């Protein structure tokens, strides 16, 4: 067995799913789990910033759930014996975290623009990449494959990143950047 990272099996524009099926590299399934992988990478970058241990641990849990979601999406849907379930307990955890963070924040009276601090901006990047991942899952569901628990998780996760941006902005002593509207 080779220890090489490259296999050359994708050189012609296809990739293998868990279970053996080969699909085009621009398949909506790959777009979905590729976007989740991108999200997880940005999340790792956020976790590596100077944030408190409680949030870092929570982000680690989210990372694991994102990896699980990507694994589910990377599995051949024609192999029911390989079907895995998504543990939606993480959704309850992030809902509780949203509620806890919001309790410590002033009421929102304006739209907020990304910015104010690099960590805050990174939260907004995570929010928008999460929304893109959610849109890819909607596209996948239109093709007949629903992952409702993952979709709900992603929907809640984008809210989490928005609230986290506000919470970290306050924790870091930064000012929220307010949208001033159309001139």
Describe this structure in words.
- It is a single chain.
- This protein is 57% helix and 5% strand.
- With 183 residues, it is mostly helical.
- The protein has a domain of 125 residues: Up-down Bundle (Hypothetical Protein Ta1238, Chain: A), CATH 1.20.1200.
Spell out the blueprint of helices and strands.
Blueprint lengths: L13 E3 L5 E3 L3 H20 L5 H21 L15 H14 L9 E2 L4 H25 L5 H24 L5 E2 L5
Antiparallel strand pairs: 1-2, 3-4
Q: Stretches where pLDDT falls below 50 for ≥5 residues? A: none
Rough shape? elongated
Mean pLDDT: 92
Query: What is the CATH architecture annotation of the domain at 24-75 and 90-105 and 117-173?
Result: Up-down Bundle
Number of strands: 4
Strand content: 5-15%
- The first-level CATH class name of the domain at 24-75 and 90-105 and 117-173: Mainly Alpha
Assign the CATH superfamily of the domain at 24-75 and 90-105 and 117-173.
Cobalamin adenosyltransferase-like
Helix content: 55-70%
The class by helix and strand makeup works out as mainly alpha
> Counting H and I runs of at least 4 residues, what is the number of helices?
5
CATH topology of the domain at 24-75 and 90-105 and 117-173: Hypothetical Protein Ta1238, Chain: A
Cα distance, first to last residue?
A: 64 Å
CA-atom Rg in angstroms: 18 Å
């Amino acid at each position: 067995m080779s220890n090489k990272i490259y296999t050359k099996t994708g050189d012609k524009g296809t990739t293998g799913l868990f279970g053996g099926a080969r699909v085009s590299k621009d398949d909506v399934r790959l777009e979905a789990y590729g976007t989740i992988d991108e999200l997880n990478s940005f999340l790792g970058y956020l976790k590596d910033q100077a944030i408190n241990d409680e949030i870092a641990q929570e982000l680690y849990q989210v990372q694991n759930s994102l990896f699980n979601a990507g694994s589910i999406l990377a599995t051949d849907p024609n192999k029911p014996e390989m079907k895995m379930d998504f543990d939606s307990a993480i959704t309850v955890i992030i809902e509780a975290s949203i509620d806890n963070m919001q309790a410590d924040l002033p009421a929102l009276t304006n739209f907020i623009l990304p910015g104010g601090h690099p960590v805050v901006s990174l939260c907004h990047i995570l929010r928008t990449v999460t929304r893109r991942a959610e849109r890819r899952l909607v596209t996948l569901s239109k093709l007949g494959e629903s992952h409702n628990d993952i979709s709900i998780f992603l929907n809640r996760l984008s809210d989490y990143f928005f609230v986290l941006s506000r919470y970290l902005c306050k924790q870091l002593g930064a000012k929220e950047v307010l949208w001033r509207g159309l001139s």
